[in-house]
Design goal:
- It contains 9 helices and no strands.
- The chain is mainly α and 140 residues long.
- It has one domain: Orthogonal Bundle (Globin-like), CATH 1.10.490.
- Helix 3 packs across helix 5.
- It is globular and about 45 Å long.
- The relative contact order is 0.15.
- The structure holds protoporphyrin IX containing FE.
- Protoporphyrin IX containing FE binds next to helix 5, helix 6 and helix 7.
Length: 140
């Protein structure tokens, strides 16, 4: 009798638990809008202190880059945004970004995610979404 009750209770908790915890989007796992904005601010801070990458941004308007990158990350992570900026190819054409530069920017993004306290599985999920963009960014 007790055993049946315990099993019944366990099943109820498990099913209830499933119903109450729908799968989170990557955007939510990044901390939503606040989390994405903090991540981009940490990323800009990383770029600002980096000798290899900073020169690419020397003529850029950082407030415009910030808004565009936030919107792009929000859209890429299934957040409630639509990216309205130029394509990755159009933006990065003429920069001649080398493979090593791209890899270094990824490292800076990882540093920024560490600074934000984003957990490794969430970091990996975001990097997996950005990796396919590589060919549209390098050697253009
Ligand atoms: C996964 C990698 C990358 C992603 C997702 C990405 C995404 C973006 C986006 C969305 C913007 C537009 C922001 C706006 O609206 O102004 C942008 C701008 C820019 N990106 Fe990237 N980017 C990546 C890698 C790189 C790399 C490797 C470099 C150089 C080493 C770079 C250099 C720049 C520069 C200089 C701008 C500003 C252009 C301007 O001032 O108009 N990006 N990027």
């Amino acid at each position: 009798m007790w055993r049946k009750c315990v099993i019944g209770l366990f099943a109820t908790i498990m099913l209830g638990g499933c119903q109450n915890t729908p799968e989170q989007t990557l955007y939510q796992r990044l901390g939503g809008q606040q989390g994405v904005e903090k991540l981009v601010d940490n990323f800009i801070n990383q770029i600002g202190h980096d000798k290899q990458i900073f020169h690419f941004f020397a003529d850029s308007k950082i407030s415009h880059f910030r808004q565009g990158f936030i919107q792009h990350l929000c859209a890429v992570s299934d957040g409630p945004c639509r990216y309205t900026g130029d394509s990755m190819v159009d933006i990065h054409t003429g920069m001649m970004v080398k493979e090593g530069d791209f890899n270094h920017v990824v490292e800076l993004l990882i540093n920024a995610m560490d600074d934000s306290g984003i957990e490794t599985p969430v970091q990996n999920a975001l990097l997996a979404r950005l990796a396919p963009l590589r060919s549209g960014i390098i050697y253009r």
